[in-house]
Amino acid sequence: MISRRNLFAQMAAGAAVGVAGAVNAAAVSRVALAAIPDAMQRDTPDTAPPLSPPDGRPYQPVVTLNGWTLPWRLRDGVKEFHLVAEPVVRELAPGCTAHLWGYNGQSPGPTIEVVEGDRVRLYVTNRLPEHTSVHWHGQRLPNGMDGVSGLTQPAIRPGETFVYEFVARRPGTFMYHPHADEMTQMAMGMMGFWVTHPKAHHPAIATVQRDFCFLLSSYDIDPGSYTPRISTMTDFNLWTWNSRVFPGIDTLNVRQGDRVRIRVGNLTMTNHPIHLHGHEFQVTGTDGGPVPPAARWPEVTTDVAVGQMRQIEFVADEPGDWALHCHKSHHTMNAMGHAVDTLIGVDHRGLASRINKIIPDYMAMGERGMADMAEMEMPIPENTVPMMSGQGPHGSLEMGGMFSVVKVRADQKPGDYSDPGWYRAPAGSVARRVETPGEAPSSPMPTAHQHPPRPTAGASEAASTRPASEPLRVRKPDGHGHHGH
Amino acid sequence: MSSQTIPSTAARAAPSTSLQHRATKRRALGSVLASAAAVLLGGCASLSPEQAIAPVQQQSQAWLSADLPLQQTDDQRAAARQRTEALLAQPLDAQAAVQLALLNHRGLQASLYGLGMAESERVQTLLWPNPVLSLGRLVRGDEREIERGLSVNLLALLGRPARQDASARTLAREQARVAQQLLDIAGQARRRWIDAVAAQAQQAHARTVLDSASAGAELTLRMRQAGNVSALRLARERAVLAEAQLAMEQAQLQAVREREALIRAIGLWGDDVARLSLPERLPDVPSTFRQADDLERTAVAQRLDIQAAKRQSEALAAQLGLTRQTGRLNALELGLQRNSSNQAPTQRGLDLSLEVPLFDWGQARIVGAQQAYLQSVEQTAQTAIDARSEVREASERAQAAWRIARRHHDELLPLARQVSDETLLRYNGMLIGVMDLLADARAQARAVSAALGAQRDFWLAEATLSQSLLGPVHDTASSASPNTSSTPGASTDASGAAH
């Protein structure tokens, strides 16, 4: 999965993306590369197993959800990494690929794991069609290594390789991302995770058995297309964890009783209340460092604001398949129309056949709700995942976007991160249908059908169509340019 | 003749030929006299209206592939009636419309009678002038003289071949006039058929727009009743529906008007009107449409107006020859005198009376004839200039109409279909709502309607072009003109702004 740079494969990837093939080919000469570490590549979006440190100070490695940790070269006591900023083709979920920019073949880029006190040298080669830089978000470092192009360094032009070097001074959870044409480059998926492990026992940093991390990012990819619309600021249609959407996000598989840490960084343009089912957790750290134990409180949801990092910990003591998701419900949807009319409670009798006369393949949807969507599985535009999908043991999950499952199993072996399959609940422990003869489901809009429209004295025909229960109904204002996604 | 300045070689050749012709006839005068009776009988035998009509019937076959049957007897009328009924038994195609017009146009039949009349005039000129028999009894004392005379108007006899030519030309001119009428009627029938089929097909697309708007308005009403949309949305959807209804009214009226125009053009009446059915659509626009390079030459060679102008010049040239020949002999009378007397031997002799050209030498008539001839030469030239320009314009218009129609067919329609397919996929994915789907159905119906308009314009232009190669085109279209194709409800979509 992780390979040495193959020039031909790299050129092919560049051609597939259709951008900057010439830049890629001409970027870095082999002579120049000889002095610096190989730039490792990864060509799959699967979750890589944790990378146990082959040298340097030992630590407990993290697992990057649908991602990987970048191997390093230890040279004269310095950990050397090589990041290549380049166009990539990233699978967001089966059936949907995106033309993004990323690092070393994937978006997000590989996780960089070091140990507190390590001297780190990071080579950054730019194979993008425009200049870039890398900002090491949250790190203590010399000002000239902060990666803000124009402010602390000149931008890295296409074809150039820069080197950053600093000591990872404090343990914690960090990110890296461009600080040159930042809006575009982050909208195109350029970001990565950074974990600095403590060099010794730290009173505020617990030892855990499982340590997961992922970044939140969002894209606006018009259904039927591949490249994000980089000018979109609020109305994104794909909400991703590590540039994956459900059902493309891997599950977090743990052994019952494990202490689990999940690190979540937010590089979208809005906040995300991350919610875990079945367990309470504590926020044990931010990108500012470990939270003093006395300052922690139990939560089942923590909000991760824009540009923030949250590190939550819990003991996975309840076996089962526990949902883990952003609690903004449209963030657990894939591409959907935000101007689609509400048809709930609208009587469709006779209408569908009339519309079918004009549009033969039309099928009525939505008069009961939107769940039809997940059930019907009708053809939709190319390169698009349905708004909601995902099959579980009991049917469709009707989810998308920022959703995954923490699978807690008694028989999950230590160090085994493979998917154990769906939870088999003990008999009698699953919610079930009870027999209640004679009860029919109520109409979704009771008042609409029970009362005829009220004619108003002297009113026009239009006025007589006024809904019977209009005064009772409250609607949120739905103006354009609204924020808060 | 040599002193004349005549621009066209062909035109100059014509009168000299007829002069020679006339000289030959003059030499044969004696024998003509001898065989007078035979000629007389022969002239009587050739009187037949069918003969005069045959050339027009041949042109009808050659140009239109349609029959132009005489309907002067009950049998002929019954046969025409049968053909009309057979043609109306199935949806009428363009060729059948032309045939129906030729069968049922009363004006055309009237013209055929006119051809019969011209033919009888021509035959008249083949007859000898009647001789004048004079008898006189003179008494002088005891002398009684009886004068018997048989005289023939020699001048009438001399001018007879020229008059025969003239009457033959009159017949030919009349035939050409009927041929032009034939072209006009057939062209009219073809164009009105195109308009009528197109207008009828437009109705179908207006119906789709209306169905879509109606479903949209109904759905919005139900959404309103469920409390899901505002009165504003409902009002907008109702306005869309009302405009679609108006467009449908217009499309229906247009179809009725075009159908009536067709009915007039093909001369239907009574029960036949109800029996008329039209195909659902026009023939497809051909995938290639390349015209011969020598359209103008073809037109000059066969156009009726050019031929008529040339014939007029020839006739005037012949007349000029006649005038020169007889200009000084206003009356020439040959008489055979036999005067018998009871006191003298019978007196026999020839009597030739001759007007003396003392004052009227005929110069004015000669000059007048020359002027008329030269005038007709100029008119012929102008006719040719106009005709060639008409053909060029018709050709360019047909080419442009073909390109436009093909662009609709090859690009716009497939794109509209693709847009609809993709729109449906987006509806399936809940990316857009059902109202967008309905609005798209209306947009696609309009695209099809516009393509149909372009298709109609092409067939009209093609009909005009092929007719312009044969004669001038007089289109008396009452309503629709090309490039103003009716697109029902083109501006009626407010639903896009309704979200």
From TrEMBL, chain A:
PROSITE patterns linked to this entry: MULTICOPPER_OXIDASE2, TAT
Record domain Plastocyanin-like: where: 97-200, 227-341
Signal peptide: 1-34
Stretch list, region Disordered: 430-485
Biased composition, class Basic and acidic residues, residue ranges: 472-485
Name of one Pfam family that matches: Cu-oxidase_2
The organism of origin for this protein: Roseateles amylovorans
Cell compartment(s), UniProt: Periplasm
Record's protein name: Copper oxidase
Alphabetized InterPro entries for the sequence: Cu-oxidase-like_N, Cu-oxidase_C, Cu-oxidase_fam, Cu_oxidase_Cu_BS, Cupredoxin, TAT_signal
Domain of life where this protein originates: Bacteria
Keywords: Metal-binding, Oxidoreductase, Signal
UniProtKB/TrEMBL annotation, chain B:
Protein name per its UniProtKB record: TolC family protein
Biased composition (Low complexity): 7-18, 476-492
Chain spans, region Disordered: 1-20, 474-499
Keywords: Coiled coil
Alphabetized SUPFAM superfamilies for the sequence: Outer membrane efflux proteins (OEP)
InterPro entries linked to this entry: MdtP/NodT-like (IPR010131), TAT_signal (IPR006311)
Coiled coil region boundaries: 232-261
Top-rank taxon: Bacteria
